[in-house]
């Protein structure tokens, strides 16, 4: 039997043609493993069923997310190049300009009232003075209902219904009158009957 001195190191491969003895001079049997006893080594039976699971280690901290890569260039297709977007059109005035006078009973809307607020206190006539798309907002500034009458060649429709003809606007009611076709107007708003 060969004996090695303490602290001897073996480099390279080892071939053993006999048994291995532990510090109490016992030879291991099949399935045994050598374990340190603190003062030597000893053979023990391997627990192939598995030992108790060790405690879980501490989870590492999160690292910062990497920077997102750049988007690739879109490939060519059989379509032409898209044109530049046109300029945005102008908007109407932020407020509705008021007509010059408060209209009383028997007065009529004028062509110059297009796009304006007209305040009324008596019966008003809608003559055929607007082109398609032109409109007027009417406010009844009285404590009574007021008639909205049609002039010659005017068809006045109550918006959202099949009703046509003269209308009434209740006290403090607001109406919008819109020319929808030549000679045809639609009226809508709060307090319209």
- Kindly report how far apart the N and C termini lie: 123 Å
Low-confidence stretches: none
What is the gyration radius calculated from CA atoms? 50 Å
Structural class by helix and strand composition: mainly beta
- Fraction of helical residues: under 10%
Tell me, rounded to a whole number, the average pLDDT.
82
Give the amount of beta strand, in percent.
25-35%
User: What is the chain-wise order of helices and strands?
Assistant: EEEEEEEEEE
CATH class category of the domain at 107-192: Mainly Beta
Largest sheet: 8 strands, mixed
Q: Architecture of the domain at 107-192, CATH level 2?
A: Sandwich
Number of helices: 0
Feature tags:
single chain; 193 residues; mainly beta; Jelly Rolls; eight-stranded mixed β-sheet; two-stranded antiparallel ribbon; 30% strand
Description:
By secondary structure, the protein is mainly β. Among the domains are: 18-47, no CATH class; 107-192, Jelly Rolls (Sandwich), CATH 2.60.120. Helices cover 0% and strands 30% of the residues. The protein contains no helices and ten strands. The chain has strands at residues 32-36, 41-45, 107-108, 117-120, 124-126, 135-140, 146-150, 155-158, 167-181, 184-192. The strands form two sheets. Strands 3, 4, 5, 6, 7, 8, 9 and 10 form an eight-stranded mixed beta sheet that branches. Strand 1 and strand 2 (41-45) form a beta hairpin.
């Amino acid at each position: 039997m060969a004996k090695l001195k303490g602290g001897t190191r073996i480099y390279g491969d080892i071939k053993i043609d006999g048994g291995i003895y532990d510090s109490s001079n016992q030879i291991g049997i099949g399935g045994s493993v050598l374990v340190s006893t603190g003062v030597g080594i000893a053979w023990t039976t391997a627990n192939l069923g598995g030992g108790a699971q060790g405690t879980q280690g501490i989870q590492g901290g999160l690292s910062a997310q990497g920077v997102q890569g750049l988007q690739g260039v879109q490939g060519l297709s059989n379509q032409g190049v898209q044109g530049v977007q046109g300029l945005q059109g102008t908007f109407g005035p932020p407020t509705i300009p008021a007509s010059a006078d408060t209209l009383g009973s028997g007065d009529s809307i004028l062509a110059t009232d297009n796009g304006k607020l007209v305040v009324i206190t008596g019966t008003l006539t809608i003559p055929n003075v607007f082109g398609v798309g032109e409109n007027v907002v009417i406010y009844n500034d009285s404590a009574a209902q007021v008639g909205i009458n049609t002039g010659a060649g005017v068809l006045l429709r109550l918006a959202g219904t099949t009703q046509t003809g003269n209308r009434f606007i209740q006290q403090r009611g607001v109406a919008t009158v819109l020319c929808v076709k030549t000679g045809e107007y639609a009226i809508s708003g709060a307090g319209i009957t």
